[in-house]
Design brief:
It is a single chain. The protein has helices spanning about 30-40, 55, 80-90, 110-120, 155-165, 180-195, and strands spanning about 1-10, 25, 30, 45-50, 65-70, 95-100, 125-130, 135-140, 165-170. The strands form 2 sheets. Strands 5-4-1-6-8-7-9 form a 7-stranded mixed β-sheet, sandwiched between helices. Strands 2-3 form a two-stranded antiparallel sheet. With about 200 residues, it is α/β, with parallel strands linked by helices. The chain has a single domain (about 1-195), classed as Alpha-Beta Complex (Spore Coat Polysaccharide Biosynthesis Protein SpsA, Chain A). A hairpin with a 2-residue loop joins strand 7 and strand 8 (about 135-140). It is globular, with a radius of gyration of 15 Å. Helix content is about 30%, strand content about 25%.
Length: about 200
């Protein structure tokens, strides 16, 4: 059973003040790091949704074997990128794992655990739980894809998790790093140095 990966990396990163996808951590950009780990976890295909400064971001995917999905409506919010990614999942994939490229501590081991929990239990929705907070990587069975489509703004994937309930793979709260502001990036760098991600 094929499980696709959808890496969301199209936003303008207005709170960061620069294109955070191109920030370097551990010798590679956040974008390349996320796409590489999705591939290493065995997701196939890995669909990377680009939008803001796509021409600058595209070279970061060279040699990884990922498929670019361009979202011309990315200014409308992350829901537009989620829709673009889900619509690009090929018919042969029974599920898809949604990842955010600005979560640099998510590694291939966590992605594999999410997929394995789905395969072992048949749960149609599996996410990661960091302490009390659920966040990607999140696996959605194909039967849930219609609920992820359409609309602007953000939070659609989170709404589906809240509404449906999800099986979860646990991680410590400190492993949740969402890089939105410069301080977030520094904290992620510190966590990486301390061994919370590789």
């Amino acid at each position: 059973m094929a499980v696709a990966g959808i890496v969301l990396a199209a936003g303008s990163a207005s709170r960061m003040g620069e294109n955070k996808m191109l920030l370097r951590l551990g010798g590679e950009t956040l974008l390349r790091r996320a796409a590489r780990r999705a591939r290493a976890a065995g997701l196939d295909p890995v669909l990377v949704v680009l939008g803001h400064e796509a021409d600058r971001a595209r070279p970061e995917l060279a040699g990884l074997g990922c498929t670019e999905v361009l979202n011309p409506a990315h200014a409308g919010g992350i829901n537009t990128s989620l829709s673009a990614g889900v619509e690009a999942v090929p018919p042969g994939a029974a599920a898809a794992v949604v990842l955010l490229a600005d979560m640099p501590l998510v590694d291939e081991g966590l992605i594999r655990e999410v997929v394995e929990l789905h395969r072992r239990t048949g749960a149609p929705l599996v996410t990661a739980r960091y302490g009390e907070v659920t966040a990607p990587p999140t696996l959605y069975h194909r039967s849930l894809f219609p609920e992820l489509l359409g609309g602007r703004g953000e939070g659609r994937g989170r709404e589906v998790v809240r509404r449906r309930g999800a099986a979860a793979v646990d991680r410590p709260a400190r492993a949740l790093a969402d890089v939105d502001r410069p301080g977030d990036f520094e904290r992620a760098r510190e966590e990486l140095a301390a061994g919370s991600g590789t």
